[in-house]
Design goal:
Blueprint: E1 9-11, H1 23-31, E2 38-45, H2 54-63, H3 65-70, E3 72-75, E4 78-81, E5 88-94, H4 105-108, E6 123-129, E7 132-136, H5 137-143, H6 155-158, H7 161-171, H8 183-196, E8 199-201, E9 208-210, E10 212-220, E11 226-228, E12 238-244, E13 249-255
Antiparallel strand pairs: 1-2, 2-13, 3-4, 5-10, 6-7, 8-9, 10-11, 10-12, 12-13
Helix pairs in contact: 7-8
Length: 262
């Protein structure tokens, strides 16, 4: 096995995702101000992948000539190719271990004061944190370190990929219409997560595990400027690489906080 494999990448045709491309999902994207601001692309690669090669494959990906000519970037209201080759790639491993939505059960427990028995989100006094308006306990749990609800999830749980998706949806885009009930956020989180990760059944026994390695990445050009995502210091500008080693495929997931698209 090559300890430093030389990866080559091939762009794949745009995939139709049952959850993400569903009309209901897209309608919620519009309501939450993120429609048109999420880009997903798929690539195959040639070499066997091992998790310890995650840094090498991420750097190779953003420096590959084929990827450079294929990768799309948000520019105003459009997604275009800018043929930017990375000079450096910052990589952070994102935990991806959650197999079912019971992870969010504590949000549904009225004793935790996020929702009422009906599933309606509890409102609170309005504050602003990191330029986000907080007007309910759900957003307080995400952003307000001073409120008791913030401690409902541990730091480790907050780093889970499924939590990162949930946070992206709840905080939304520029013109985000907040939900009164928590169910739509959970339903769309589940749909996106199910579309993007691979679940493996082990040959011996009935144990399931996640077969996708998730990386949060910031790719920078020769001037040191971030381009995947741009303005990477903003909370809602997020770029992920999802590596499916079994099928030798990479999925890019990019959200750029920006203009409203109907």
């Amino acid at each position: 096995m090559d300890l430093d494999p030389k990866y080559t990448f091939t762009p794949l045709l745009a995939r139709q995702y049952m959850g993400i491309d569903n009309k209901d999902t897209q309608d919620y994207f519009r309501k939450w101000g993120i429609h048109g601001n999420i880009g997903i692309q798929n690539f195959s690669f040639n070499e066997e992948f091992q998790p310890y090669n995650k840094y090498q494959i991420a750097e190779a990906f953003f420096k590959d000539d084929i990827v450079v000519k294929s990768l799309l970037h948000k520019d105003g209201d459009s997604w275009i190719n800018k043929s930017i080759k990375a000079e450096c790639v910052e990589v952070c491993t994102v935990a991806c271990t959650i197999l079912d939505m019971s992870f969010f059960d504590k949000l549904m427990d009225p004793e935790n004061k996020i929702v009422f028995n009906t599933g309606k989100i509890r409102q609170r006094y309005e504050t602003v944190v990191d330029d986000f308006v907080i007007c309910d306990n759900l957003r307080g749990m995400l952003l307000d370190t001073e409120c008791p609800e913030y401690n409902l999830f541990t730091d480790e749980e907050r780093q889970e990929f499924i939590f990162r998706i949930f946070e992206l949806l709840v905080l939304g885009g520029v013109l985000c219409q907040f939900e009164n009930e928590i169910k739509p956020y959970l339903d769309i989180t589940r749909s996106i997560y199910k579309d993007l990760i691979t679940v493996q059944l082990h040959e011996q026994g009935q144990n399931l595990s996640i077969g996708t390695t998730v990386l949060q990445v910031v790719a920078k050009n020769s001037q040191g400027e971030a381009f995947f995502p741009t303005n990477s210091e903003l909370r809602q500008n997020i770029g992920f690489l999802l590596i499916d080693g079994l099928n030798r495929q990479i999925t890019t997931f990019l959200h750029q906080f920006g203009s409203f698209h109907w």
